[in-house]
Design a protein that fits this description.
This protein folds into three domains: 66 residues; 79 residues, Helix Hairpins; 154 residues, Heat Shock Protein 90. 58% of the residues lie in helices and 14% in strands. The chain is built from ten helices and seven strands. A five-stranded mixed β-sheet has the order 2-4-5-7-6, covered by helices on one side. It has a two-stranded antiparallel ribbon with strand order 1-3. Helix 8 packs antiparallel against helix 9. About 3% of the residues have low confidence. One of its GO terms (biological process) is cellular response to phosphate starvation.
Length: 334
């Protein structure tokens, strides 16, 4: 405690000592000042100062000693037991509160998991009558009615599919199977699924696949392509969508380019945010703001980088940049 007391006051102690030595130095250098009387005065000043420190020590350390006696209730003794009954009570209350919070968290997690499982089960159940409905629509003779019903059926199907992948995406790492995926088969399958919508809007496709093999997960890559195609069709009118795959810098790239309304430059930094919709077309109630968010979430574990370029009223180009095989090996070995 003495050492701590002196260390806390070392600045003004040093000031006082230096001041006394300065007085002695001046008396020694200046012959007009008698040195011995000055030395005597300095000695008395030092004794008085030392006495002052000694007298003040018990008064100024009394508060700190009180704090030491009342140490933190959370501090335990060397054998792991609280130092006092008061500390035991405080520790027990903290322990009880922690356990109660942990139980609440666990219960909430179980509730969320149960609700997610129920929703996934409901989506799968809804798909059965939806498939039946599609078969019934295919048997209609009225082409105009058939086209309208097919379009509405497709909208429901896409919304359910998006919701299904939204619930699955939290454990996507457990659902990945990386393999060589045939881009040609995957792209044509997704285009065929969206065919009725494309016909209704007068949209065609210009497909230029220079590279048809990529390393990815077929199911989740199909979902990513589906979201990009859906966006391109939704925001385009009577134009072609260009799908182009090529190799650049030892990486395969897949471009989906439309000539629709494009994206405002101020919206570009936020397009992958959850729930974000266009600020220029904010009255568009058909946009959920989930498609690109889920696309980004699905692409990340697949090590797919998404690049995007867009100009208002000129169209948008999304580019999927696929990883090399070594990138997956490095990820697995980490």
């Amino acid at each position: 405690m003495i050492k701590k007391y002196l260390m806390e006051r070392r600045s003004w102690i040093l000031l006082f000592v230096c001041q006394q030595f300065l007085i002695l130095l001046i008396a020694y250098v200046d012959a007009a000042i008698p040195f011995m009387p000055i030395l005597y005065i300095v000695f008395l000043s030092m004794m008085i100062f030392l006495g002052f420190l000694i007298i003040r020590y018990p008064k100024e350390t009394k508060f700190y000693k009180t704090l030491e006696e009342w140490e933190s209730p959370l501090e335990l003794t060397g054998i792991g037991e609280p130092e006092s009954p008061f500390e035991q009570i405080i520790e027990q209350k903290i322990t009880d509160q922690t356990e109660r919070l942990q139980q609440i968290i666990s219960q909430n997690q179980l509730t969320l998991e149960h609700e997610k499982d129920e929703l996934l089960s409901w989506i799968h159940e809804v798909k059965t009558p939806l498939t039946t409905m599609h078969l019934m629509i295919e048997r209609l003779d009225d082409k105009s009615l058939k086209a309208q019903l097919t379009y509405e059926w497709l909208r429901i199907h896409l919304l359910l599919d998006q919701q299904l992948h939204h619930k699955r995406i939290s454990f996507i790492e457990n659902d990945l199977y990386v393999e060589q995926v045939n881009l040609k088969s995957l792209v044509f399958k997704e285009i065929k699924a969206l065919q009725s919508w494309c016909i209704q809007k007068g949209i065609g496709f210009d497909i230029q696949l220079e590279q048809i093999k990529v390393l990815s997960d077929a199911k989740w890559l199909a979902f990513i392509v589906r979201q990009l195609l859906t966006n391109a069709i939704k925001y385009s009118d009577a134009s072609d969508i260009i799908i182009h795959s090529y190799e650049q810098n030892d990486r395969i790239r897949l471009e989906v380019q439309d000539f629709g309304r494009g994206i405002d430059p101020k919206d570009i930094p936020r397009i992958f945010e959850k729930g974000f919709t266009s600020t220029t077309q904010h009255s568009d109630h058909t946009s959920t703001g989930m498609g690109l968010y889920l696309t980004k979430k699905a692409a990340t574990p697949l090590l797919i980088h998404i690049d995007m370029h867009s100009k208002p009223d000129a169209g948008t180009t999304f580019t999927l940049i696929f990883p090399k095989q070594n990138d997956f090996v490095s990820m697995v070995s980490m």
